[in-house]
Amino acid sequence: MKILISNTSDAPLYQQIKEQIKDAILKEELVEGDALPSIRAFAENLKVSVLTIRRVYEELEQEGFIVSQVGIGTFVSAGNLELLRDSKRRLVEQKMLDMIKTAKSLKISKEELNAMMDILYEED
User: Fold this and answer.
1) Could you give the CA distance from residue 83 to residue 34 in angstroms, rounded to a whole number?
2) Bigger pLDDT: 124 or 49?
3) 54: pLDDT strictly greater than 90
4) Partner of 75 at 20 to 30 A CA spacing, among 38, 61, 86, 117?
5) pLDDT tens, 100-118?
6) CATH says 13-80 is which class?
7) Above 90 in pLDDT, residue 85?
């Protein structure tokens, strides 16, 4: 699992790390039962405070994405996978609503918008 931290991002460090772990779970790069690094090792690897990683792990555990077992480690729990997928869908839907509103204000037809979306979607 590769975590990239941006010092220029508006999002706090813990949030950047937390979101990337959630994304890795959603993309099945991390699956149920996978062990996460210890707080100390993860903090050292990312060059952040252990308090930052502790917060990430605590929030992920509260949200049901990981489970910590004292003396054993921290593991991925896919219990909230469907909830995460739904929240991602809602985010895309909101962006699509903004796009549709902009297209309508510019008098771009639904057919043109769909054609543009097909082209852009296939580019990746």
Assistant:
1) 19
2) 49
3) yes
4) 86
5) 999 999 999 999 999 999 9
6) mainly alpha
7) no
DSSP calls for 56-111: HHHHHHHTTSEEEETTTEEEE-GGGHHHHHHHHHHHHHHHHHHHHHHHHHTT--HH
- CA distances 117 to 85, 90, 113, Å, are 21, 18, 6
- Identity of the amino acid at 91: L
Contact residues for 4 (Cβ-Cβ < 8 A; gap 6+): 16, 20
CB-CB contact of 74 with 40 (8 Å): no
How long, in residues, is the chain? 124
Which residue's structure tokens are 């931290």? 5
C-alpha 68: how far from chain center: 20
Q: Which of 73, 62, 89 is nearest to 36 (CA)?
A: 73
**pLDDT for residue 50:** 97
What is the Cα 45 distance to its own chain's centre?
20
How many other CB atoms are found less than 10 A from the CB of residue 78?
18
Which residue is listed with tokens 């099945």?
28
H or E element at residue 117:
helix 110-123
